[in-house]
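Record 1 of the preview.
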Amino acid sequence: MPLLSILKSQISKLLQSRPFSYLFSISYFGARYKGWAPQPNQPTVQRRLERVIRHVLGHEDFSLIGASRTDSGVSCEGGYVQVFLREEMDMNSLLPQFNEHLPQDIRLNSVKSVPISFNLIQSVQQKTYRYYFSNSCDFHPFASAFMVNVSEELNWEKMNEACGLFIGKHDYKGFCKPSENKTDYVREVIAAGIHKTNDFLGQIFPQEIYYFEITGTGFLHHQVRMMMSAIWQIGKGEMDLSEIGGRFESPEEFEKLPPAPANGLVLWETILNNL
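->
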């Protein structure tokens, strides 16, 4: 059964047993975590959240689910978490306590009660990711926590042209980590482009910093990171623009793309409907 269907089924069961639910917006810096989802003997964002909520509530009779399952090392600026309880509570009054006990690299920004009909997974309308990178010959090691440096000379015109080729509905099997359970690799990209930014300032950061921003209705495992890798290869002259279309049509004919490192990727915004 596809993961999305499993998550939808889990939420339906949670609503039956724990009818009171609360929607939190969340931001986190992912460098210290092995992604969102729980893993045995590994620090993950969900596990840390569960630990703090358990401590503040004084019990473990709750469940939670996230709008996105980010990979190890990936950060999040605009995400959501839905928490399910058997009894109604004033979560706004508890929000400062949650943040007091959370580590500084995780923050719950806001909370609101949502009706029993609200399903977080089904309510995700679109997501925007940003991948931060620089093109510097004098890159400070401290900046590597927030971005990836590509030291080779880049053809920015071709890179921007490559971004345009991703817009629309395409089969992204050649730009993701395939799964044995998955048969549908078609995803819709609404917008994609490379922008210059001053989000990071200070002597440890390069003078010119960029981000690849992409907005879509949903993304596959490693999709954004492989797209970023392809764009860099095109910029360095290691890949032709025509290969993007070729990977859409016949992904099996091409070598698997290496995903760009996780530390440059940020889930920037999640837009929900049904609120």
